[in-house]
Predict the 3D structure of the following.
Amino acid sequence: MTDRSLTDRSVKPNPGTPNPGRIQSKHIILTSHQNKGSSQVIPIQWGAADPRDRGPVIGSLHSARHRNVIGTHAGSYGVYRALAVASGVLDPSHKADLTNTSPIVHIGPHPSWADPSKIVSLDPFGAIASNAFGDHYPTDHEILPTIAITKAHIYIPELKTEIDQGRLQVDGKILKADGNLVVTKAAIDPVWYLPGIAKRLGIDEWDLRRVLFQQTGGMFPELVTRPDLHVFLPPIGGTTVYIVGDVDAITDPNKPVAVRVHDECNGSDVFGSDICTCRPYLVHGIEVCIQTAQAGGAGVIVYCRKEGRALGEVTKFLVYNARKRQEGGDRADAYFLRTECVAGVQDMRFQELMPDVLHWLGITRIDQLVSMSNMKYNAITHAGIEVVQRVAIPPELIPADAQVEIEAKKASGYYSENEVMTEEELAEIKGREY
Ligand SMILES: [Zn+2]
């Protein structure tokens, strides 16, 4: 492509789309080495209690000379932003107008925010970035939030059914008579402090940086060329937190806290597939959260974008087919094996990083953990958070085709109040055939 064609593209956006005036400059600045203005980079003192000592996360491309991280904002959506700029619908010089966007409900700061080992995969100051740092730096340091906190009414049909059945009580404030549930919710983009991530996983930071570089097809050269940059904004999905009840109750030692940490399962969560227990267990988690909030405490749902155990949905559907077509049919005793055949591993969620969001919320004790996962339980308790009680999914909520999943998980070490099946019994638990 010649320079001329690029110039032409810039003045002829698609018909019907707004013309932002120009597209990204053709001048390419390699980010792999420090440029002349690098002395202006504000160092990030990860774990400092005062945000001004900690320093802002500057990942904006408008602040090229001030960027102090690897990667850019919005996780995987940064790629769509590039498409929007490339196709002429987004002016690359557009700066976010953050008027009235600050948190509706305040969270923190908590003591855990000042512990560089407790939070390594999100920026605890991410929701208050523009307030905490905005006045202290010139406007050419574009400091963007990585966390947004708002409120909502949510409607889940199962909750209305539970009200009608008398399983849930309407209180008019938290749970409305029409089934609407009042929540506070927070969206969190990942912000990785690489030395902390490496330490958490028990690996060398430079091995981590090299492999991240290699396994993303060389996407972020700074991982291996910029040892002065320790923070990475990875192009992955983030986390959403739903809080039921009084947010302040989360850190009140005299009030109960219920938590469900739920990893995304689009097929069940949204579309109601009956091959797994995800949506029914999520709804049960919300039910326990409502009851805890109604008892004066708070309930927390942490929803992590880690589809198919972070193997992705394509892998997940391939595994479904392999399970259903294998000799002897879909059996609980071969549940994990089929995943390993396709993906090479059973799971890539790295629950070791998951408790960060609980520390961000200031949680030190969970009265009811609505999860049977030993991986989640171990991660939470290893992070120093006390778990008083684990809550299994009630048997009547397990969907028709999900016995294979639940028995296989229980046999692999998931929490259960009942006896775990033997190998022979597991082989007898079979799912539907395609
Ligand atoms: Zn599922």
